[in-house]
Amino acid sequence: MAIVEQTSQRVRVTIDGQLTTVPQGTTIWEAARRLGVDIPALCHSPKLEPVGVCRMCVVDVGERVLAAACARECADEMV
């Protein structure tokens, strides 16, 4: 999934204690990569739409279930 840079909407997220601001629509996997945080994934390719089927990239976003970082978009104030 390509990051939509044209949008003026940005969201603030904290990943491993590092605060960053990314364009709305950026996945957790993409935001982590920008910060140098490695989230392993088997089924993800930046050239393809994310599917999240391997579940190797699951992360804790403070909800009831873990989220696939390659498919889940960042939400404002996500930690």
What does this structure look like?
The protein is mainly beta and 79 residues long. The protein is built from one helix and four strands; from the N terminus they run ββαββ. A hairpin with a 7-residue loop joins strand 3 and strand 4 (67-68). The protein is globular.
What is the structure about, briefly put?
With 79 residues, this protein is mainly β. It contains one helix and four strands.
Main attributes?
mainly beta, 9% helix, 4 strands, two-stranded antiparallel ribbon, 79 residues, disordered N terminus
Percent range of helical residues: under 10%
Contiguous helical run count: 1
Strand fraction band? 15-25%
Q: Calculate Rg over CA atoms.
A: 12 Å
Largest sheet: 2 strands, antiparallel
Strand order of the largest sheet: 1-2
Q: Report, as a whole number of angstroms, the end-to-end distance.
A: 22 Å
Overall spatial form = globular
Could you say which structural class the secondary elements and strand pairing correspond to? mainly beta
| Secondary-structure element series | EEHEE
Low-confidence stretches: 1-7
Number of strands: 4
* Overall residue-averaged pLDDT value: 86
